[in-house]
Design brief:
With about 425 residues, the chain is α+β, with helices and mostly antiparallel strands. Among the domains are: about 40-50 and about 350-425, conserved putative lor/sdh protein from methanococcus maripaludis s2 fold; about 100-220. The protein contains 5 helices and 20 strands. A 6-stranded antiparallel β-barrel has the order 2-10-13-12-11-14. Helix 2 packs antiparallel against helix 3. The longest helix has about 60 residues, at about 160-220. The radius of gyration is 48 Å and the shape is elongated. It starts with a helix and ends in a 5-residue tail after the last helix. The relative contact order is 0.19.
C-alpha cells in the first residue's frame, strides 16, 4: 500500500516538472507573439505658440549701480559692505574701500603744498626787491646821462683834456643807459619767472591734495536713492570651474576700478532676470510678452515684457546671456530675490501642421516621424519649419495621421528582450 502511494506521488511530480519545462520552452514564442503597444498621437493643425522657458529671479527695477572708483590703483580692498537685501536710505554708506594709501598721498601733498606756499611768498619778495633794484638802476642811469650832458656844456670854458673827459663820461653814461633799457624787460621777466616756477609747484601740490581728497571721498560708496542693497558677484576671482557661480563680494575682496560692487534697485518698479542659453538668443527681442510665475507665491502669474538682452558670457560649452524683463502690475507681496519660472512668447504661428516634440526623431542629420499604417509603423522624412520646447511645426505629414511618440524599433527590441513593461506603462496618446 505504501509502495502504491509513493509511485503515485512520483508520477505527479514528474508530470508537474514536464509542465514547467514545456512552459519555459514556449515562453520566447509567447513573447514574440505579444503585441507591442507604442504610444501614438494624431498630427494636428492649428495655432502654435512658440516660447522660451527659463528660471529667473525678481529684483527692483531702474537699478543704480555702485562702481569701484578709479583712483590710479589697480586694485582696491573692501573694508565694509552692506548685506544683500538690506534696506538703505538715500546717502547712507553702502561700501567702503581701504584709504590708507590715499591718506598717505594726501599728507605728502599737503606737506608739499605748505612748502610751496612758503617758497612762493619768498620768491615774490625776492622778485619785488629785484624789480625795485632794476628801477633804481634805470633812474640812476638816466640821471647820470643828464649830469654828463650838463658837464659837456662847460667844454668851451674848460681845458681841452677836461672837455675830452666830459665827452667820454657822457658816452659811457648813454651806453650804460641803453644796456639797462635794453635788458629791462628781460630782467624784470626773469624776476617774475622765479615766482612762476614756485607758483607752478604750489599748484601741483594743491592739485595732488585735491585729487587725494576726492579719491578718499569716492572710496565711500553711498546709496543714490532709497532702496535695498543687491551685492554683485566677484568676477575678479582667480578660482573658477565649469558650472560654478562666482561668489558675492565680501569684506576683504580685491576689486578692480570700474567693477560693479552693488546696486540699489527701485522697489517701486520690478524686473525679472534670467540666464538663457545662447541658442535661443535669435528668437528673443525687446518688447516680447512673457509670463512670470513666482514660486514663493504659489505660482502667482505676473505679466512682463522683455526690455534688455545682455552680452553672452560663460564657457564655450555653456554660453548664456542675461535677459531682463519689466514686470507689469507688480503685487505688494513681491520680495527681492524671489525665484520665478519665466515663459517668453517669441512667436505665434496660425493654421500650421504640428506634432509633439517627442514624435520627431533624428538620425544621420535627417528628421523623421514614424507614421502608423496597416502594415505597421513606417519612417517618413519631415521638414522642420519651427520648433518650440514642446511642439514642432513640420511639413511632410497630413493632419489626422497618427505618429509614434516613441521609437517603435526600440519597443520591438525591448519586447523581445522582455524589457517593454516600462514603455507600455506610458499608454497611448
Amino acid at each position: 500500500m505504501k509502495w502504491a502511494k509513493r509511485a503515485a506521488l512520483a508520477a505527479a511530480l514528474a508530470l508537474a516538472g514536464y509542465g514547467v519545462w514545456r512552459g519555459r520552452a514556449s515562453l520566447p514564442e509567447l513573447r514574440k507573439a505579444e503585441k507591442v503597444e507604442v504610444p501614438t498621437t494624431r498630427v494636428r493643425r492649428g495655432e502654435v505658440r512658440l516660447t522660451v522657458t527659463a528660471k529667473g529671479a525678481l529684483q527692483g527695477g531702474n537699478s543704480k549701480m555702485l562702481l569701484a572708483p578709479s583712483t590710479g590703483n589697480p586694485q582696491l580692498t573692501l573694508t565694509s559692505l552692506r548685506r544683500s537685501g538690506e534696506v538703505v536710505e538715500k546717502d547712507e554708506v553702502v561700501a567702503e574701500f581701504d584709504t590708507t594709501e590715499e591718506l598717505y598721498k594726501l599728507r605728502e601733498a599737503e606737506s608739499d603744498l605748505a612748502e610751496a606756499q612758503q617758497a612762493v611768498a619768498q620768491a615774490s619778495q625776492e622778485s619785488l626787491a629785484k624789480e625795485e633794484e632794476l628801477e633804481y638802476e634805470l633812474i640812476k642811469a638816466r640821471a647820470d646821462v643828464k649830469l654828463a650832458e650838463l658837464e659837456t656844456r662847460r667844454n668851451p670854458l674848460v681845458a681841452g683834456i677836461t672837455a675830452k673827459q666830459n665827452d667820454l663820461t657822457l658816452a659811457d653814461a648813454k651806453d650804460r643807459l641803453r644796456r639797462i633799457e635794453r635788458d629791462y624787460a628781460e630782467r624784470k621777466a626773469a624776476a617774475k619767472a622765479s615766482v612762476a616756477v614756485q607758483e607752478a609747484a604750489r599748484k601741483k601740490a594743491e592739485i595732488q591734495a585735491t585729487t587725494a581728497r576726492g579719491n578718499i571721498e569716492k572710496m565711500t560708496l553711498k546709496a543714490p536713492a532709497a532702496g535695498y542693497v543687491n551685492v554683485e558677484r566677484n568676477t575678479n576671482s582667480n578660482f573658477f570651474f565649469a558650472g560654478m557661480q562666482f561668489p558675492l563680494f565680501q569684506v576683504g575682496d580685491q576689486v578692480r576700478a570700474g567693477m560693479a560692487v552693488a546696486q540699489i534697485p527701485d522697489m517701486e518698479q520690478w524686473e525679472a532676470t534670467a540666464q538663457i542659453a545662447e541658442s535661443d538668443r535669435g528668437h528673443l527681442a525687446a518688447g516680447q510678452g512673457a509670463e512670470v510665475r513666482v514660486v514663493a507665491l504659489a505660482g502667482r502669474l505676473l505679466r512682463a515684457k522683455v526690455v534688455d538682452l545682455g552680452g553672452t558670457t560663460g564657457p564655450p560649452w555653456n554660453r548664456r546671456f542675461e535677459c531682463k524683463l519689466k514686470v507689469e502690475a507688480a503685487v505688494p507681496e513681491l520680495r527681492p530675490g524671489m525665484s520665478a519660472v519665466i515663459v517668453i512668447s517669441t512667436d505665434t504661428l496660425k493654421d500650421v501642421v504640428w506634432v509633439p516634440a517627442q514624435a520627431v526623431f533624428e538620425r544621420g542629420g535627417k528628421s523623421f516621424v514614424y507614421v502608423a499604417t496597416r502594415q505597421g509603423f513606417q519612417a517618413r522624412d519631415v521638414k522642420l519649419v519651427r520648433r518650440s520646447e514642446s511642439q514642432v511645426v513640420v511639413e511632410g505629414v497630413q493632419e489626422g495621421e497618427r505618429v509614434a511618440l516613441a521609437n517603435p524599433e526600440d519597443r520591438e527590441s525591448g519586447a523581445e528582450s522582455g524589457g517593454g513593461g516600462a514603455m507600455k506603462a506610458m499608454g497611448k496618446g
